[in-house]
Amino acid sequence: MAIRDHFALALNEIGTREIKGAQNNPRIVGYHQATTLRATDDETPWCASFVCWVLETCGIKSTRSAAARSFENWGQSIELENAEPGDIAVFRRGDKPWQGHVGFFVGEDGDRLLVLGGNQGDRVTISSYPKDQLLSIREV
Q: What is the bridge-based pairing of β-strands 88-92 and 76-78?
């Protein structure tokens, strides 16, 4: 199976990271410009900004929101067993109903999901998240 264009772009961004201190990584600031928030720093949470930037760069309409859970109802919901690398995974986080995380599904590892996303340890990387925090998988 060929890698989907948006997923290939996301993979190419691995390693992009925040700059500690007063400086900001212009690449991350660029991710924010794909949202209506248009944050101008790399300290503002940016997982959804990264997903929006990837999708919009590839000509796919995103939510244009910097809120991770804005993707909870974006596009078509699919079952986890039908997920393919590059589909969008939305997770709950914290105890507030608006808190969450979003990234691109990579695969499964036991009771965890592998996700390619931004603002994972202050960088773009592949990290694992508990399956029991998954809210939705959205087909791209």
A: unpaired
Longest distance between any two alpha carbons in the chain, whole Å: 43
Cα–Cα distance, 5 to 27 (Å, whole number): 19
Distance set, CA 54 to CA 8, 59, 110 (Å): 10, 9, 28
Q: Where are the beta strands (DSSP E) in 49-111?
A: 76-78, 88-92, 100-109
d(CA 53, CA 124): 13
Q: What is the CATH number of domain 5-139?
A: 3.90.1720.10
Q: Can you read off the two tokens belonging to residue 119? A: 């603002």
Minimum mean pLDDT range among 19-28, 94-103, 118-127? 94-103
Report how far residue 41's alpha carbon sits from residue 50's, in angstroms, rounded to the nearest whole number: 13
Predicted confidence (pLDDT) per residue in 36-52, tens digit:
999 999 999 999 999 99
Task: List the domain boundaries for the chain.
Answer: 5-139
Give the model confidence (pLDDT) of 4-41 as tens digits: 899 999 999 999 999 999 999 999 999 999 999 999 99
